[in-house]
Amino acid sequence: MEDNTLPWSLDKVESLISSLYEPRQPNAITEAQALLANFQSSPQAWILAHELLRRPDEKGKFFGALTIIVKLNRESSSLSEENAQELLEHLIGWYRDSFENYTGPLVPRKLSSALATFFLHFHQLWPSFVRHLSICLASWQYFDPLSLQSSLDVGRVLDTLDLNKLKAVLWVVTSIVEDVIRIDWNTANGVHLYNSVVREVTDAATLLFKGLAETQMAAVSNDSIKCLQSWIFFAQKASSRDSHVLALLRNLMPSVIESLISESRFGASAELLIDTLSNYPALLSEHHFNLLVNLFVSSWADERYSRLLEGDIEFESAQFGQLLLAFGEEKCQWLMQSEDPRSKVLLSMLCGLLGSDGYPVAENRVFVPAIEFWSTFTEVMSDLVTFDDISTIPWAESALLQVLEVVSVACRKITYPPAEEFSQWDSSDRVGFSDARKDVIDLLQSAYSLSGFQLVATFSNLVLTALNDCAWSQLETAAFCLAGLADCSKDDVRLDEALGSVFESSLFSHLSSPNTDITLRTRQTCLYLIEQYTEYFERNVSSLAPALRLLFSLLGNSSMAAPASRSILRLCSSCRHHLHAETNGFLDEYQTLAEQQRLDCISSERVLAAIASIAQAIPDAPRRYNACTRLIEFIQNDSARARELAQLPLGTKLPCFGQRCIENSADDSPGLHIALKTLRCLVGIGRGLQTPVESTIDLDASNPSEAEYDDQLERLHRQVVRIIMDIEDTFGRNSEVNELVCAVLRCGFSESEPGPFVLRFQDVTSYLTRHVGNIPRPGIFVSTACSFVSSLYAQGNPNKGTVYTTLLLWVIRLLQQSSDPEHDPELSQNSIDFACRLLSKSPTTLLTLQPTTAAEYFFLFTIQVLDGSEPLPKAAAAEFWATFITLKGGHPEASDAAEQAMGTLGPLLARSLARNIGGRASRSELDRLSEPIKRLVNCYPLAKEWLQSGLGHTSFPSSKVTEEQKALFVKKVVSLRGSRATNQVVRDFWLSARGSSFAYAS
Fold it and tell me: Which keywords are on file for this protein (predicted)?
């Protein structure tokens, strides 16, 4: 790399520039770019850039203009006013010459950017830049901008410019406005820049009016539209006091609307109007909207609209659709309520967009935005009227008919193409089509609030019609739409007649028959339909048995097993109180399927969970436990099989049915595969046996006593514990096994009544605390302990104090075995979370822990984590200390001990907090770290002294904060007494410690 103080020759620079455009190795190009960047940092770059811009070579001129931009951005403060004025004269001269000897836009565009950059840094030297540049280009000579006559008629000057020079002025004005928009206007320089641009708006409007009226050269008109768009962005950001800016721009909009009918100007005009309608509709007056409406109902629009509907894939056709939709979004309420015949025409056009040729997304790009518009339309209408009011409001009936027509058109468009065609689409089109179907469901759900159960009846009839016609693709679409309405109508008994016509039809027999040619997707969607209407089957039990027979008959079909088992689980869980008498029959059916190896792993898990949910509803405890025993026996058999398979050599073929099981990778033995399935099934059973959330709770019932754990239930507990311990003993080095074991334990934590998975607290404690030493992901077990202590507290277990102490000592032992707090972030986070939960439930457990060295270790550990960089453990540590600090006064039994501990820990905590807000923490951590600071100053009078000491400690990481700033920070924090405003004070101090440009004492 050459030093930038060495002399650079023009020839050398030109040679490097030329080398960038020659076929060379990437490293050679990178080296040339680095040398040129080095050149741009040299003092000689100013002079040589001038020379490059005088040369005929376009590449050299482009690089010369680029160098001027770089130098202005880096070194503008070193230029005197005289040098700056001279540079402006040269830039305008070069810019004029680039159009006179025009060979392409590359150099002129870069020079227009250079002039804009000059304005950013020296706007005070270039007042009235629109008229100054115009007169310089018109007269072929340079004038001093500071002595230009203000009475000069800019319109007359613009009239003397030929079209190329008019384009030149437009480019510079556009570049200046675009650059000024990016500047922060709240700074002193930003205010001056803003005012300088505002003063130009009248001249700019004159320039734009002339450019928009140009018909001979479309490029000039399009450049005018682009320039106007930059001014509109400026007006959006401008102060409301400068309303004349908006007024002048508003006067230009009719010209833009009129230019839509020009083929060569349509694209630019449509883009500007779409953006304005979407983001800044306040710019448009009723006159403008009226012009647009007239245009949309003209023969010109008819021709554009027809091309779009016929599947014209040109960008401008899609743009026309977007323009129509943008107008519709803005004038939605007018379209809905107006009696103007033009509104009906526009609504019809907007509806017709949904029916344009091609499958949505893959071939039709206007369908999704059209659906979004109609969803908005329907939601707005729902806000204005209710279902019961529609018949009394004149416009509402017409609007509802339009919505129903839209629903009909949209639903016809989401029928899947033939499978072979769909498989040839790329993945993004397939996903997009599926998302478009979901958008239609959103529309249906919005329409339901207006039309009521009429929609359900409509789609029920469509299902029946498709069944009768054996139109399987149409059946899939109708079933999909009907299923999508379930969330709106599942509890409405008025729908039972319509739904009954579907579920009591030949649908089930068609689906179960192996001889029909119903497509796989249609079968899957019909099962999904059954799954969505579980409430119907709860109310109509006679339909439940046929539905379940159908679902169980499909379990052996590898393509249907997943949706069938999912539907079985949903139905059995919802209808458990109607099915519990048939529990033994379900158990026998499962046994038969398992013995015949007709179930894959996922189906086994779901079906067992379904049977467990039925068993949970058995009112008689002995019968319920007998059913549970059979369920657990299935799991015991699988557990024994897994341990047997673990003894087989690697590479043994996996003895498991179906393709939906876990992949038998090189790291997975057959035994591990079955072990994971066993645990998942056990978790499924545990969750199925949980009391449903909606079940009634007997408030007068007492907590279960030890006597209620009869022999049968104790035997079930031993079996569950034996299963998880056997699997862990064999496969315990696998972290997924440990996760699933913990999931089994959690199944009983939320229960308030005895059950097979509500294990004795001694068993859970003993099981958790056996996990010490080198075990994979110990944080999983600590996380389970967090849930366990919460459940003990909720149940009011009289022995919970002993359990708390045992578990806390175990957690601390795990931390002591870890080499570093950041070695295992999961363990650190969950351990601190565990202690934090204990503080809120039993603060004395930590404060009176024996040996005391264990508690001391934990306190220092949390401070060490607070000093670390792992975000999740750090957040947990901040929450722990925020909770611990408030023990003073909040918990009488722990207040004195906490205050005594803080006498030692307070200064250490304050020192750690000081290091964090002194720049060590990340920005996203500041709010969490503010909490212990706020509580510290609110609870402890010595907090001020501790914080001052921490900020003055040698470990404070920043040298950018003065002692006065530190003292002011402490004063502010203490005076705020823990209020929310402390967060901003902490953020400001952190910024100053990081060295950001910030006046702290402001």
Answer: Nucleus, Protein transport, Transport
